[in-house]
Amino acid sequence: MDTALGLFFPPELPTILLRLFLAFLAGAIMGWERERFIKDVSRQRGAGFRTYSLVCFGSCLFGLASIYGFSSSGMNHDPGRVAAQVVTGMGFLGAGAIIKYNGSVKGLTTAAGMWVASAIGLMFSAGMYITAIVAAFFAYLTLDFHRLFPRLFPVTKISHPSDESIGEEEQEKRHNHRVFDDDDHD
């Protein structure tokens, strides 16, 4: 009976659960900041709370599986192999988040943020708590720097697709919206 309980509740379980919780929390905080930014800047949806939480939490899961799930003694036991695959996998996903449209590039911050979130998750899985917490703080600070110090960054306009790529009805809505906005600010 003790053996069966030991399989479901190994002695490392409190440590594993702490690492998972901290990874989720770090990703959630980064994603929460992105949610706030997305709502302020545009009505579009982007990577936010769910995405960052899952990326950080998921990379922690991979790290924990590598550390605790494949016990082996000898030369072939290398938990770093999984970490290396997380790095390349997130690079691949991040590349998919980057969009080039009409001479502008979008998604770089999302790609970089998800890449950093995965690294933070791996750090938690390795038990590097303080370093991971400091890294999460710096990541959050980086993502929220424009709000904390708004005078350092000029206001940027949101680019819209060129008027040629939309119909007349949409052009009229935009024109009326701009006129209405201009009247509001006088």
UniProtKB/TrEMBL annotation:
The record's principal subcellular location, in a coarse class, is membrane
PANTHER family attached here?
A: MAGNESIUM TRANSPORTER YHID-RELATED, PROTEIN MGTC
For this UniProt record, give its keywords in alphabetical order, as a comma-separated list. Answer: Cell membrane, Membrane, Transmembrane, Transmembrane helix
Report the family membership: Belongs to the MgtC/SapB family.
Give the subcellular location. Answer: Cell membrane
Q: What is this protein called?
A: Membrane protein
- Please spell out the taxonomic lineage of the organism that makes this protein: Bacteria, Bacillati, Bacillota, Bacilli, Bacillales
Please provide, in alphabetical order, the Gene Ontology terms of the cellular component aspect for this entry: plasma membrane
Q: Which species is this UniProt entry from? A: Brevibacillus reuszeri
Q: Where is this region: Disordered?
A: 160-186
> InterPro entries attached here?
MgtC/SapB/SrpB/YhiD_fam, MgtC_SapB_SrpB_YhiD_N
Keyword check for Amino-acid biosynthesis? no
Topological type in the membrane: Multi-pass membrane protein
Tell me where the transmembrane regions lie.
Answer: 16-32, 52-70, 82-101, 113-141
Q: Which residues form the MgtC/SapB/SrpB/YhiD N-terminal domain?
A: 20-147
